[in-house]
Specification:
Shape of chain A: globular
CATH architecture of chain A: Orthogonal Bundle
CATH class of chain A: Mainly Alpha
Largest interface: A-B, 36 and 35 residues
Oligomer: homodimer
Number of helices of chain A: 4
Radius of gyration of chain A: 17 Å
Structural class of chain A: mainly alpha
Number of domains of chain A: 1
Number of strands of chain A: 2
Distance between the termini of chain A: 42 Å
CATH superfamily of chain A: Winged helix-like DNA-binding domain superfamily/Winged helix DNA-binding domain
Order of helices and strands of chain A: HHHEEH
Strand content of chain A: 5-15%
Strand order of the largest sheet of chain A: 1-2
CATH topology of chain A: Arc Repressor Mutant, subunit A
Amino acid sequence: MKHQINIRHLRYFVAVAEAESFCGGARRLGLSQPAVSQQMRMLECYLGISLFRRCGKRTLLTPAGLTFLKPAGDITRRFDDLIRTLGKESDLSEVPPRD
Amino acid sequence: MKHQINIRHLRYFVAVAEAESFCGGARRLGLSQPAVSQQMRMLECYLGISLFRRCGKRTLLTPAGLTFLKPAGDITRRFDDLIRTLGKESDLSEVPPRD
DNA sequence: ATCCATTACGGTGTACGTAAATATG
DNA sequence: CATATTTACGTACACCGTAATGGAT
């Protein structure tokens, strides 16, 4: 298993899907198109499925891509919520390395 | 933004928590202890919270760690399910990279 | 010709293993 | 002394940006 799929891949995928373009998704993520393009290629390669479909100037999703979109968004949202929640908990139990 | 927290961190955390030791968690993950230890340190540092508590020979969770455990396990499980699901969909829409 | 995506290539940083050091029982 | 964890250090490769190429309108 060479490349491991990461939550980053889901994040990029959601951004591209919502922007309906790699260009817009990359801009939204503050990255270059090639960076996003490469990661999406890796994701498709790993899954063995085409997720995107070039339709004129817009990059739309394949049926599989549509199936993927909602769960991907849900997971990334939950993930971010978890991290944010723990950040707030730190007010209570500040990291006391030793006592 | 130096280090980005990843689903890998959640995975390692769950493994260590369930094994109640870094050693056991690392073994279960097929990694070395230092690798896991380093990632857990990064996670704690990023969150600003202590997650583990040395209690005799066992490595247990702090209250914050206990709060973290269930959501972390849930997210990683959902993540894996999503990837696995897409893998099965590939039977229908095989990836035709080039033709 | 313009816009969007992919390919190619090099630099930087992260993840990991091995080995040594430290702590705890 | 044995077991468990951390620290130190070197290496491999994943990620990203820039630049160049390809395609479609």
